[in-house]
Amino acid sequence: MSSGPPASVIGSAHGSDAASEMQRQIAAAAAQQGVAQAKASAKTGIFEIKSYIQENPASVKVVCFLIGLLLMTLSILGIFNVIGAAVEPKHYLNNFYNVFFGVIICICDCKESWGKACFDIQEKLFRNAYLLATHKGRGMLYMYVGSTIIFVLPDRSEYPFWSLIYGLMGILLCILAYLMLLLAWWGELCGCRGRYASMDAGADAAGNRA
């Protein structure tokens, strides 16, 4: 008669299966904990980025957004020389750059909900170009753009209206740039704080929940 495997062999096999199952459970638990920690770190990182974003007053945001939109529109027309804003090759190049700058200005000062609706483009811009999330950074950008606008004025004799529009747009953008720099230096004295300063507590709570 053939006999079955020794009891010690059977016990060893069962013990090996139990150890393997325990290792799998430990690995699964460690993986879940790692995923949870990664999510918590990502949330905390987003909150930390937002806590440093400085927002302009509502009236300044509206004016900046409208100027960015107007700059983008007029520059597109200038590229095709519809309003006489392109006389030399450098004018075409400036108009091309101003289209890009107009888009950046609109993104910086648009409503947060609009930015989220457009693939969260505002937060991505501030994350990858943090300087634009500060008053100093936007002020310097707007100062540069305003000065370039003034130097791309259409011919006053042929296009007096558009020349006036360009001049006012450049001057107004420079004034807004000065205002942003003042907010950067003395904003706290005027009660102007970061847009998401109150979200630090939310980040801590999210980390604790995780």
Quaternary: single chain
Question: What's the number of extended β-strand segments?
Answer: 0
Structural class: mainly alpha
The major beta sheet can be summarized as: none
- Mean pLDDT score, rounded? 73
SS summary, helix count: 8
Give the termini separation.
62 Å
Which residues sit in consecutive blocks of at least 5 with pLDDT less than 50?
A: 41-49, 194-210
Secondary-structure element sequence?
HHHHHHHH
Helix content: over 70%
The whole-angstrom Rg is 29 Å
Beta strand %: under 5%
Shape: elongated
Keywords: Membrane, Transmembrane, Transmembrane helix
Transmembrane segments: 62-86, 129-153, 165-186
Structural write-up:
The chain is an all-alpha fold. Helices cover 74% and strands 0% of the residues. It is built from 8 helices and no strands. Helix 2 (58-79) runs antiparallel to helix 3 (89-109). The protein starts with 6 loop residues before the first helix and ends with a helix. Keywords: Membrane, Transmembrane, Transmembrane helix. The chain crosses the membrane at residues 62-86, 129-153, 165-186.
